[in-house]
Design goal:
About 45% of the residues lie in helices and about 5% in strands. By secondary structure, it is an alpha/beta fold. It folds into three domains: about 120 residues, Rossmann fold (3-Layer(aba) Sandwich), CATH 3.40.50.620; about 120 residues, Alpha Horseshoe (Serine Threonine Protein Phosphatase 5, Tetratricopeptide repeat); about 170 residues, DNA Cyclobutane Dipyrimidine Photolyase, subunit A, domain 3, CATH 1.10.579.10. The chain has a five-stranded parallel beta sheet, with helices on both faces. Helix 15 packs antiparallel against helix 16.
Length: about 475
């Protein structure tokens, strides 16, 4: 007899309840990861790069403990039952997933149960599962603040489980795909050089990031919106692939100070925002394609100009904070959260481009893109989502840059052609004088583009479009 452990977005050994339960079975253990591009939305190119490295790291960790990571590809509803039969599994373990993935898991569980294989599943990737946080009438929450208050009222999340020192022996004679056969890495050309230089995927890299952030969490509340400063945790791709659990992150942040910290609470609220996104996905499984607020089904999105889309994607809009964010994304596979809001607002409101087009680009280019947070946050910015900001909240990219990158360090880092401009004009280079431009080596329209839209007129166009679906205009935030 043998035990089957199916790993998905939980590529770690520490705080892995399904692994702990599988070990307790004291039988030979088959550990498998299935690349399933058929049952669910295939992950984007940058996330595939991360998955390759993460699986490599996990495989090495398992090998040091005498275990194997079996790699398979194909429809999980077919692959998992076949593997269970091949290894003679009497039981199977996995950590629960949510949204469309839960439907896949239910089908696999039904097939295994029909063959007499016991299935046990566990809470591992969310602090609070969707059926645990409900209103008094038993319905899901649609407002974040009420959701998070109710979640916190359930008490502190459980403590993380330790990393096992020893593992049961592998099932002999089982073969899988090689990591290269999964074809996760980019070829011809290999565009991943900047991502490679920026990240260390895997459980060890996640632990290092978490330790570094725990030492700095006290500054998070005050500095979290500053892309020019190293205040972000940079944990999002590690959490997305389950190289670290939210329970580990929660307790590391909460225990970083001797007394309750407002900054730690603010960071915990950001974990709560991620939880809320997954709770909404459980209610709206097609959130990446469908407006949560149905009135936006009639919104008059513009037909995007290809030149505008190229300018936005490659950071050539003429608005330095937007361009810095999009270039950071292209180079590193990640973007600061404040800047994500700015560039998403610019696309959906200055250019009137459907949020789904932006969501697809982020899906391809973000190493941390996941099925819940990516569409949820795009809908939040666009105004079409659950508890979304009003559509008429139109970020001014100039004042946003001046407020959150006051010295222009973020722009200088990612838009080097503007690096020598004074801070007073770096977020509005078209207002720089001829001598300032010449001294900085900037020729507008040549070395750096002029703005592709004018903020005031774009704002008026967006508000007029919103009025067509019954929206009421209002003063946008700066």
């Amino acid at each position: 007899m043998a035990t089957l452990l199916w790993l998905r977005d939980d590529l770690r050994l520490a705080d892995n309840p399904a692994l702990a339960a599988a070990m307790a079975a004291r039988e030979p253990l088959a550990i498998v990861h299935v690349l399933d591009d058929e049952s669910l939305r295939p992950i984007g190119a940058a996330a595939r790069w991360w998955l390759h490295r993460s699986l490599q790291s996990l495989g090495a960790d398992l090998a040091r403990r005498g275990q194997d990571l079996i790699l398979k590809r194909g429809r999980a509803a077919r692959v998992i039952p076949q593997l269970a039969a091949e290894v003679g599994a009497s039981r199977a373990f996995w950590n629960r997933r949510y949204g469309p993935a839960a439907t896949v898991d239910a089908a696999v569980e039904k097939t295994l149960a029909g063959r007499g294989i016991a299935v046990s599943t566990f809470k591992a990737s969310l602090l609070f599962e969707p059926d645990e946080v409900m209103t008094r009438t038993g319905t899901p929450y649609r407002v974040y603040s009420a959701f998070w208050r109710a979640a916190l009222a359930r008490g502190e999340p459980r403590r993380p489980l330790p990393k096992p020192r020893k593992l049961p022996p592998p099932v002999e004679g089982v073969t899988g795909e090689s990591i290269d056969a999964l074809r996760l890495l980019p070829v011809a050309p290999d565009w991943s050089g900047g991502i490679r230089a920026s990240w260390q995927p895997g459980e060890h890299g996640a632990a290092e990031r978490l330790d570094a952030f725990a030492d700095a969490v006290g500054d998070y509340g005050a500095l979290r919106d500053r892309p020019d400063l190293p205040a972000s945790s940079m944990l999002s791709p590690h959490i997305r692939f389950g190289e670290v659990s939210p329970f580990q992150v929660w307790h590391a942040a909460a225990g970083a100070t001797a007394r309750p910290s407002a900054s730690a609470a603010k960071f915990e609220a950001e974990l709560g925002w991620r939880e809320f996104a997954w709770h909404i996905l459980a209610q709206v499984p097609d959130m990446a394609r469908r407006n949560i607020r149905p009135e936006f089904d009639d919104f008059p999105w513009a037909v995007p100009y290809e030149d505008d889309m190229w300018d936005w994607r490659r950071g050539r809009t003429g608005f330095p904070i937007v361009d810095a964010g999009m270039r950071q994304l292209w180079e590193t596979g990640w973007m600061h959260n404040r800047v994500r809001m700015i560039v998403a607002s610019f696309l959906t409101k200055h250019l009137l481009v459907d949020w789904r087009i932006g969501e697809e680009w982020f899906w391809e280019t973000l190493v941390d893109a996941d099925p819940a947070s990516n569409p949820f946050n795009w809908q939040w910015v666009a105004g079409s989502g659950a508890d979304a900001q009003p559509f008429f909240r139109i970020f001014n990219p100039v004042t946003q840059g001046e407020k959150f990158d006051p010295e222009g360090r973020y722009v200088r880092r990612h838009v080097p052609e503007l690096a020598r401009l004074p801070a007073a004009v770096i977020h509005r280079p078209w207002e720089a004088g001829p001598l300032e431009l010449a001294a900085a080596g900037v020729t507008l329209g040549e070395t750096y583009p002029l703005p592709i839209v004018e903020h005031a007129s774009a704002r008026e166009r967006a508000l007029a479009a919103f009025a067509k679906i019954g929206g009421k205009g209002g003063k946008p935030s700066p």
